[in-house]
């Protein structure tokens, strides 16, 4: 059964898991590792000494894929349901994807949203609206080096939250790398509306799109000008919360978790780099960085080995929070390379439709004006058609009365006293 979380319209302040799963035909198992040059990267780093906070639905620390490498922090929903069968479905899968890339890293699970199978799911609505900001601050204060957020908001307007932004700012100032899934609303044929999603849209968050084996955008992956990079997001075998094994899944959630794993490799090897420097090497070494930026996949699919090699050449920069003196266009000192604006191109069908509509409206307006003027002219002419007062009033318009017509068969009237007229 296909599950597309984030698909239905939700209420303001709602966060949902940004992943989907599928049982359709898929590429070879484990294709994502060579696609990101992970085996080669493992000769340089495996994530030693790094803690990745998975801000999600909670995790099952006893799952064989996570066991011994994961701990769980507070439940920011303040619930008491860890023993339930559905607990930690999405979060456990995301944690396993991080560890597949960074096998020697540690996971810190933090719950901020409910799983879809949770009876209290309520479309993803949070019982604690401050859960995300609280989790980010907690992760920062408890040793997290990377924060992975495979979650996203869905609202009719937006779900920008000042507290969440300040928490992200705080984490960046402490040198923590943050990543977010762009969302699964990019397929219009499946009802996607490509809505803006937070926290991935916040400045300072590395936004991750989902890619396919050929490096193109996965059809469900949302398209936005704040997308930074892409990572594999289809047919990824993740930990299955219902068993001790794995199951195939897809989504920008998975792509985000895999990208967080690559970030952990970089931070492990070069711990003094600022967050923006980690983003920089991910972008500059991505698959189509040399060809330029795309709102679909950012600078392209991550190349873990190339990113590590590029990181070796950098001099660590001072960690600067958003808004401080010396920051660049987005965050950190200097420009992070992301365009201020990005052209989405012209939809000529819509432009043509708008032009036809405008022309039609103009014709209706001109026709109405002509009818109005015609009505005023007829009103001035009056009921007889000859102007005010009828046809006898035409002299006022400068016309001369016509002479009476003489009947050619009628004799002229004789002068007085002459009758009958002379023949």
Keywords:
423 residues; alpha/beta; 2 domains; seven-stranded parallel beta sheet; two-stranded antiparallel sheet; 27% helix; elongated; disordered N terminus
**CATH 2nd-level architecture of the largest domain:** 3-Layer(aba) Sandwich
- The count of strands amounts to 13
pLDDT average, as an integer? 82
Largest sheet composition: 7 strands, parallel
Cα-to-Cα separation, first versus last residue: 119 Å
Could you please say which CATH topology of the largest domain applies here?
Rossmann fold
Strand content: 5-15%
Order of helices and strands: EEEHHEEHEHEEHEEEEEHHHH
> What global shape is seen?
elongated
Q: Tell me, what is the CATH class of the largest domain?
A: Alpha Beta
Which structural class is indicated by helix and strand composition?
alpha/beta
Unreliable stretches, pLDDT < 50, 5 or more residues?
1-14, 324-338, 386-398, 407-411, 417-423
Quick rundown:
With 423 residues, the protein is an alpha/beta fold. The protein is built from 9 helices and 13 strands. The chain is elongated, with a radius of gyration of 36 Å.
List the helices and strands and how they pair.
Blueprint: E1 3-4, E2 15-17, E3 20-21, H1 32-35, H2 38-41, E4 51-56, E5 70-75, H3 89-101, E6 106-111, H4 131-141, E7 146-149, E8 151-153, H5 162-173, E9 177-181, E10 206-211, E11 229-232, E12 236-239, E13 246-249, H6 252-269, H7 275-284, H8 304-311, H9 348-381
Parallel strand pairs: 4-6, 4-7, 5-6, 7-9, 9-10, 10-11
Antiparallel strand pairs: 1-3, 2-8, 12-13
Helix pairs in contact: 3-6, 4-5, 6-8, 7-8
């Amino acid at each position: 059964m296909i599950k597309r979380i984030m698909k239905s319209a939700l209420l303001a302040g709602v966060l949902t898991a940004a992943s989907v799963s599928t049982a359709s035909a898929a590429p070879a198992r484990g294709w994502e590792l060579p696609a990101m040059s992970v085996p080669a990267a493992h000769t340089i780093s495996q994530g030693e000494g790094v803690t990745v906070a998975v801000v999600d639905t909670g995790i099952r620390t006893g799952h064989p894929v996570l066991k011994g490498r994961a701990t769980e922090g507070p439940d920011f929903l303040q619930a008491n349901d860890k023993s339930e069968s559905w607990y930690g479905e999405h979060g456990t899968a995301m944690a396993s994807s991080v560890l597949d890339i960074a096998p020697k890293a540690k996971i810190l699970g933090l719950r901020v949203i409910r799983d879809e199978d949770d009876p209290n799911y309520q479309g993803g609505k949070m019982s604690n609206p401050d859960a995300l900001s609280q989790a980010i601050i907690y992760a920062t204060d408890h040793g997290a080096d990377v924060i992975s957020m495979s979650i996203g908001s869905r609202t009719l307007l937006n779900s920008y939250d000042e507290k969440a932004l300040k928490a992200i700012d705080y984490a960046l100032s402490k040198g923590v790398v943050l990543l977010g899934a762009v969302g699964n609303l990019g397929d219009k044929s499946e009802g996607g509306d490509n809505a803006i999603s937070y926290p991935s849209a916040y400045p300072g968050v590395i936004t991750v799109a989902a890619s396919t084996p050929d490096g193109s955008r996965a059809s469900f992956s949302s398209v936005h000008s704040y997308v930074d990079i892409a990572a594999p997001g289809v047919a990824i075998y993740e930990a299955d919360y219902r068993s001790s094994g794995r199951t195939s899944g897809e989504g920008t959630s998975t792509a985000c978790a895999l990208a967080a794993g690559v970030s952990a490799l970089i931070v492990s090897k070069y711990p003094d780099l600022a967050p923006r420097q980690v983003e920089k090497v991910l972008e500059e070494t991505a698959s189509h960085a040399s060809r330029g930026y795309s709102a679909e996949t950012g600078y392209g699919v991550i190349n873990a080995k190339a990113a590590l090699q590029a990181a070796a050449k950098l001099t660590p920069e001072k960690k600067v929070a958003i808004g401080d003196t010396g920051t660049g266009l987005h965050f950190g000192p200097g420009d992070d390379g992301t365009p201020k604006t990005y052209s989405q191109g012209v939809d000529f069908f819509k432009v043509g439709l708008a032009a036809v509509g405008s022309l039609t409206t103009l014709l209706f307006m001109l026709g109405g004006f002509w009818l109005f003027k015609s009505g005023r002219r007829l009103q001035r002419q009056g009921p007889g058609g000859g102007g005010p007062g009828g046809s006898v009033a035409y002299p006022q318009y400068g016309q001369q009365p016509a002479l009476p017509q003489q009947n050619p068969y009628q004799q002229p009237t004789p002068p007085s006293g002459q009758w009958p007229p002379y023949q």
